[in-house]
Design goal:
Layout (H helix, E strand, L loop, with lengths): L5 E6 L4 E6 L2 H7 L2 H12 L13 E5 L13 E6 L6 E6 L3 H7 L4 E5 L6 E6 L2 E6 L8 H11 L6 E4 L2 H4 L7 E3 L3 E3 L4 H7 L2 E7 L10 H17 L1 H10 L4 H7 L21 H5 L10 E5 L9 E4 L18 E2 L3 H7 L8 H14 L3 H16 L5 H4 L8 H13 L4 H4 L3 H7 L8 E2 L2 E2 L9 H9 L12 H4 L15 H18 L11 H11 L6 H22 L10 H5 L14 H12 L9 H7 L2
Parallel strand pairs: 1-6, 7-12
Antiparallel strand pairs: 1-2, 3-4, 3-6, 4-5, 7-8, 9-10, 9-12, 10-11, 13-14, 14-15, 16-17
Helix pairs in contact: 1-2, 2-20, 2-22, 7-21, 11-13, 12-15, 13-17, 18-20, 18-24, 20-22, 20-24
């Protein structure tokens, strides 16, 4: 069946945990996870609600393939109205938490209201209760997970929690599970903190049952796993190098945003790359990377486990950071590194560890530091104001600023609001490299044109995981397109956006799309879920999810003017590399995209589009 058909509704104000049946009519239209949870959110909250008010809701949701033998079937999503963006937020995480929710018998947990005191939710199969979290408030995500497991005397409990960043409503706070996996973007951790919800602890022993056609499902998942194993990216590149395999590639393309997007190539990219993580250090003769790691059910294993240099200035007096822990992924390495001009791999790992420990999105944090460093470089803010000599390239400044932000001290409070609000405060809003107040990921859209349209139109603010045109424009997946031209990018972006909606809704990792198309996903969904799940229907589900999210944002007050890029990317040409002399052609691509989407010139879905999708 794919679904457990059960939702847990947690009213934090009243302190109640109530089971209810899953709306199967909605499941048939939105599949699960991102799609289904977003449908619940859209139906239950006012789009204009203050994200940090008790009237906002937060939903943790699985997909029908979560917890099954489908490769990468460990994903879960957190859906809410984003604290950073004021737009619909859906933040996706791997690890083992999502599968555990399914094993406990739940498809979804809806949190509403606000607890009068800190609490955590404990779920053991059918039993669910809110417990006092006074002893957990103020603890890090790492301490919280260890304390909960010890108090229940069960090391197999799976925990998602917030650290000080979420408690203090850092607007890019995230929710961390399994120590270093995170629902990372849009400030979902700040929403959780605003509800006085410290953690969710799950223990499920039911397993997953009710797959509609098990022999067909077994055949489909085995065939799909072979596709992943035989693919150069998912079978070789990602297991060995992780997403960091892209650092040198994107730099050579002239699309690595450097020093707050002033430059498109970083002279020290090689020092913070995947290859550098494999090299033996001169200090101790050991490589930075210890091993790769996999989330639940994953046959790719792109995760990094790293060990920091114990002699590095950031940790030489802090033994608690000496052990092997979650290592740098490409986006974090870029945001903490190239975005700030910092080429010190160990400093990047230290900042990454603190983001994991205290629950902060390293992309938004690092990019906000980059904006602060530019404000400092321009003389708009001083060393006295910041508390450190925050020049581009300073590893010391990066390490100090991550500590200040994590602990809510000094200038860290200024960084905590994100680059859009910070730059606006100092009279230079154009220096925030963001869309809908969410900071860009690691691709400069002057060198990869499709990513400019991707960022501008993303429903959750600037994001690479809503339409990864890098696959086509750089890696030639599923077809090679020219990254330096705007032609055809409207169709490409729409196709990626709709397909990604299906991958997310199914409960699988979007990284499988380096090898899989929807034609590989469809037999798995068809065999797992009751009903007809043809290619035509899946394509429609993806398009329906996108348009529903769009309608929410329009009702929240967003307009076509918000589907835009910072002036720098439209007026300051790339200085070096293959894209030298180019700006992003968003103004040409956007009208084409609206037309392809079946939207009017103002970006509003046409009546015929809504009727066709049943919206």
């Amino acid at each position: 069946m794919g679904w457990n058909r059960k939702v847990l509704r947690v009213n934090l104000t009243a302190g109640t945990c109530t089971p209810e049946p899953l709306n199967m009519a909605w499941a048939n239209d939105y599949l699960g996870s991102r799609g289904l949870a977003s449908k619940y959110l859209v139906e239950e909250i006012d789009p204009k609600v203050d994200p940090l008010s008790p009237d906002n809701k937060m939903i943790m949701s699985t997909g029908p393939l979560t917890g099954t033998m489908a490769s990468t079937g460990g994903r879960y999503t957190v859906v809410t109205k984003g604290a950073l963006t004021n737009a619909i937020a859906c933040s996706n995480s791997g690890g083992f938490f999502g599968a555990e929710m399914k094993f406990a018998g739940w498809d979804m947990i809806i949190f509403e209201g606000k607890s009068p005191k800190p609490v955590y939710l404990y779920v053991e199969n059918d039993k669910a209760e809110l417990r006092d979290a006074a002893h957990l408030w103020g603890k890090t995500c790492w301490e919280t997970e260890a304390t909960i497991k010890k108090s229940h005397q069960d090391p197999l409990i799976r925990v998602s929690s917030i650290g000080a960043a979420g408690e203090n409503q850092v607007l890019f706070a995230c929710i961390v599970n399994d120590l270093h996996r995170a629902a990372g973007r849009s400030g979902v951790g700040a929403v959780m903190g605003s509800k006085n919800l410290k953690a969710v602890a799950l223990r499920g022993t039911k397993g997953v049952s009710g797959i509609k056609d098990f022999p067909a499902f077994l055949a489909a998942t085995n065939a799909a796993k072979k596709v992943l194993a035989d693919n150069a990216v998912t079978g070789q590149g990602l297991p060995k190098y992780g997403t960091q395999v892209l650092m040198n590639v994107i730099n050579e393309m002239g699309a690595l945003p450097t020093r707050n997007h002033r430059d498109v190539q970083f002279e020290d990219a090689g020092k913070i790359s995947a290859e550098a993580m494999h090299e033996k250090r001169p200090t101790d003769g050991k490589p930075h990377l210890v091993t790769n790691a996999a989330c639940f059910g994953c046959t790719i294993a792109c995760g990094r486990i790293s060990k920091i240099d114990e002699t590095h200035f950031s940790v030489k007096n802090s033994p608690k950071y000496w052990g092997a822990s979650g290592g740098l992924e490409y986006e974090a390495a870029w945001a903490l590194g190239a975005a700030n001009g910092v080429g010190d791999l160990e400093a990047l790992q230290y900042a990454n560890l603190l983001c994991n420990e205290h629950g902060m999105d390293p992309i938004s944090f690092g990019a906000t530091v980059g904006a602060a460093m530019e404000l400092y470089d321009l003389g708009i803010i001083s060393e006295e104001q910041i508390g450190v000599d925050a020049k581009f390239g300073s590893a010391e400044a990066l390490c100090k600023l991550v500590e200040m932000t994590a602990h809510g001290e000094g200038f860290g409070k200024e960084l905590a609001v994100g680059s859009a609000r910070m730059c606006a405060k100092y009279g230079r809003p154009e220096l925030s490299m963001s869309v809908k107040s969410q900071e860009f990921p690691a691709y400069d859209s002057r060198g990869i044109q499709g990513m400019g349209l991707t960022y501008a139109t993303s429903n959750r603010g600037a994001c690479h995981l809503r339409s990864y045109t890098v696959a086509s424009e750089v890696l030639g997946i599923p077809v090679k397109t020219d990254p330096l031209v705007t032609e055809g990018k409207a169709d490409l972006v729409k196709a990626f956006q709709d397909a990604t909606g299906v991958f997310d809704a199914a409960g699988i990792c979007v990284f499988t799309s380096f090898a899989w198309t929807l034609a590989d996903v469809q037999p798995q969904v068809q065999a797992a879920c009751e009903g007809d799940w043809s290619m035509e229907k899946l394509n429609e589900v993806g398009e329906r999810i996108w348009n529903m999210e769009r309608q929410f944002n329009l009702a929240a007050g967003f307009t076509a003017a918000d589907d835009d890029l910072p002036p720098r990317l439209k007026t300051e040409p790339a200085k070096t590399g293959p894209a030298k002399g180019l700006v992003n052609g968003i103004d040409k691509m956007k009208p084409e995209y609206y037309k392809v989407r079946g939207w009017d010139a103002n970006g509003v879905p046409e009546k015929a589009t809504l009727e066709r999708l049943g919206l």
